[in-house]
Backbone:
């Protein structure tokens, strides 16, 4: 039983990432009707926001200390990060330590801006083109974004540690009444899960309880009528595109400690996220979230040794297998709306 | 001739001529000259032109004619490679049994995947094929290791049975004694031309499959496929079931991909799982779109274009750039080199991505359409001569079912 709970928890953090990316994909798809293959790149850029934040906070002033010598006999260089000299070593040190959560402050404006530029500059011209063209142009854009990041940050993964406070593990078993050391779980992953739950809840609340969200939902249901009522729906959809990009970016920034960012991580997640969207049902936001967590957990269960010995290799293909079965038996996905992406 | 119209025969003859003369045509600069690095007439690259040309021709039969965008064709490429290497291991280094097996297994595999995937269309079809290809890739890496040798890649070992290996047979891939990696070098003046057996083997196969695809394009079957692309609903109303046609197109293009994969292994007796990864599927999509989907020559041009620039561009480095712009004032020279730097060498993928985006945005017909536009500009012929009038009623906009 405790093994099952552990696998369930393991599935949640990957599931959170899937759910956040799939949520953004579905937002874009539901509002603008565009299949965005560059969404994985948004996730990747978000992760690199964390890297950028880390290196920005570590910009140091180099002072020479003539009293100490390094092994070559030169005066030792002492690097004091600017932040430390600004806020004092105590506060400055903890700011540097918390660079990953702080990078969200960087990720949100960057991703919003990127989303706006992308939508206004490129995607706008593709509304009337076939879906194949949209896939192709965003696929090209994903390659370009990925190569730009590779140019600046190189091809190797860059470790971005979580704050010290969350670096260890939590004995999760004790909290729910198991013996000690049965369910040990990395603390940051719990943080990630909580974070993604908050973001998902915020997006839903925004759509459900604000006037803006109501208009957007109306626009998703019937864009033309909303336009006829004298509402500038295009502007709102552009903002939604920015929000979707920001969601992916935040998901990426917070994922950086779990998986050191490299330039092709977006593509790896994108393929799976598309599968998630299809399983959840094109255009259904709850479906995307549900399917994201579901597939994350299922994937994690499939990688248990007991299951693997029963059906070898199942952990590698389970997600795709589920997608194929769902597409063939329930073409609309788990919670798909009628008339979305059907001829 | 050969069941082709006069125009097509001329076209085919031109293609045959160009293909056979490639080792000379791609070697326009004498050895040792500054521009020699732009020569592409070396065996490895020419083989790639032919092989990826075949891959793209096959992909074009599916995507160009029916409009179904498959993101999983690399799976067939991989299956083809594995088949050939297995035949090396079991029978011997003659490529013929391997290539036959490659085409057959890829065809069967395509039949299975196509039968399932083609029940859906549009983006769902793309994702289904992508899912199948990723599944095959993951399996090749993990459980199927006895068949695929996992990460190491499949290769021939000395203790393999190779039952048809005679005492005198060559110890590398050959076609009834013609060894693939042997080539004849001819020096003419400052030029050196390499005539490689492997290239000519691939080239002859490429010509044959090009001829087949030409026949398919011109056949009633091809027209049926085009009808599916234009308006599948109307086709169904006419009482035709499009499924068998699309499935046939899918299997044919799968067999082309299997053949291309087999040829890859015929040139270099190795097969790795990374050939099945979805980036490889993406590459053939790039080639076809870049050249011009739905045209006969487009995919081949696209394949050649990408493979050529991949090889040449990635070899250019800052030093070479400095020699090129040496005539300019120093500051300007440095500035230009600095600007160009991200796009060359390792940055070739960036250039490719940008180029691909430009083509999709401005030139949906690919390089072929670009060529046609320039041709019309040069000859001064009006562009709108053959396009239908503005009468929307009689010329309804075809709704592509890929919508």
Residues:
């Amino acid at each position: 039983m405790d093994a099952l709970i552990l696998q369930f928890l393991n599935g949640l953090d990957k599931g959170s990432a899937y759910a956040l990316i799939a949520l953004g994909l579905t937002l874009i798809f539901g509002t603008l009707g565009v299949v965005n293959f560059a969404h994985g790149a948004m996730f990747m850029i978000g992760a690199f926001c964390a890297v950028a934040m880390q290196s920005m906070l570590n910009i140091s002033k180099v002072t020479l200390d003539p009293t100490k010598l390094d092994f070559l006999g030169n005066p030792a260089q002492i690097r004091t990060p600017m932040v430390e000299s600004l806020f004092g070593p105590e506060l400055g040190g903890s700011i540097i330590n918390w660079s990953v959560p702080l990078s969200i402050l960087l990720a949100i404006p960057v991703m919003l801006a990127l989303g706006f530029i992308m939508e206004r500059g490129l995607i706008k011209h593709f509304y009337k083109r076939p879906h194949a063209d949209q896939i192709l142009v965003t696929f090209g854009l994903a390659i370009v974004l990925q190569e730009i990041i590779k140019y600046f940050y190189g091809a190797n993964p860059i470790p971005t540690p979580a704050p010290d406070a969350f670096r260890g593990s939590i004995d999760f078993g004790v909290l729910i009444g198991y013996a000690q050391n049965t369910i040990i779980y990395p603390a940051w992953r719990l943080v990630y899960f909580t974070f993604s739950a908050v973001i998902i809840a915020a997006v839903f609340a925004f759509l459900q309880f604000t006037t803006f969200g109501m208009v957007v939902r109306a626009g998703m249901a019937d864009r033309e009528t909303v336009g006829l009522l004298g509402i500038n729906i295009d502007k709102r959809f552009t903002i939604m595109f920015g929000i979707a990009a920001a969601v992916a970016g935040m998901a990426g920034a917070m994922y950086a400690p779990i998986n050191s960012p490299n330039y092709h991580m977006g593509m790896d997640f994108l393929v799976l996220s598309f599968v998630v969207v299809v399983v959840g049902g094109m255009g259904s936001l709850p479906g995307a979230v549900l399917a994201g967590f579901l597939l994350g957990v299922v994937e994690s269960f499939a990688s248990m040794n007991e299951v693997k010995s029963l059906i070898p290799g199942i952990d590698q293909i389970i997600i795709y297998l589920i997608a194929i079965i769902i597409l063939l038996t329930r073409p609309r996905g788990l919670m798909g709306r009628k008339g979305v992406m059907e001829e | 001739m050969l069941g082709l119209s006069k125009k097509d025969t001329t076209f085919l003859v031109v293609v045959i001529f160009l293909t056979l003369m490639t080792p000379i045509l791609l070697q326009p600069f004498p050895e040792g000259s500054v521009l020699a690095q732009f020569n592409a007439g070396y065996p490895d690259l020419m083989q790639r032109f032919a092989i990826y040309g075949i891959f793209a021709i096959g992909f074009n039969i599916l995507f160009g004619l029916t409009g179904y965008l498959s993101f999983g064709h690399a799976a067939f490429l991989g299956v083809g490679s594995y088949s050939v290497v297995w035949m090396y291991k079991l029978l011997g280094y003659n490529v013929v049994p391997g290539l036959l097996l490659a085409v057959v297994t890829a065809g069967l595999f395509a039949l299975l995947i196509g039968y399932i995937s083609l029940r859906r269309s549009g983006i769902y079809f793309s994702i289904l094929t992508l899912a199948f290809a990723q599944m095959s890739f993951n399996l090749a890496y993990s459980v199927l290791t006895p068949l695929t040798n996992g990460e190491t890649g499949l290769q021939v070992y000395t203790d393999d049975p190779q039952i048809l290996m005679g005492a005198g047979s060559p110890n590398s891939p050959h076609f009834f004694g013609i060894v693939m990696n042997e080539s004849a070098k001819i020096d003419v003046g400052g030029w050196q031309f390499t005539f490689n057996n492997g290239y000519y083997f691939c080239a002859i196969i490429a010509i044959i499959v090009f001829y087949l695809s030409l026949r398919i394009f011109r056949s009633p079957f091809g027209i049926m496929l085009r009808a599916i692309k234009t308006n599948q609903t109307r086709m169904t109303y006419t009482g035709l079931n499009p499924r068998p046609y699309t499935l046939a197109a899918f299997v044919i293009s799968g067999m082309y991909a299997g053949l291309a994969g087999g040829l890859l292994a015929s040139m270099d007796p190795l097969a790795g799982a990374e050939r099945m990864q979805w980036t490889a599927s993406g590459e053939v999509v790039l080639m076809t779109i870049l050249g011009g989907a739905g045209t006969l020559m487009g995919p081949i041009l696209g394949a050649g274009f990408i493979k050529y620039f991949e090889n040449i561009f990635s070899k250019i480095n800052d030093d070479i750039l400095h020699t090129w712009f040496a005539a300019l004032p120093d500051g300007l020279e440095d500035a230009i080199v600095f600007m160009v730097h991200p796009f060359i060498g390792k940055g070739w993928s960036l250039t490719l991505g940008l180029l691909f985006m430009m083509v999709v945005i401005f030139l949906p017909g690919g390089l072929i359409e670009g060529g046609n536009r320039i041709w019309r500009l040069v000859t001064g012929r009006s562009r709108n001569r053959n396009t239908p009038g503005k009468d929307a009623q009689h010329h309804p906009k075809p709704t592509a079912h890929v919508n």
User: Anything to note?
Assistant: The beta strands of chain A are 60-69, 75-81, 169-171, 184-186.
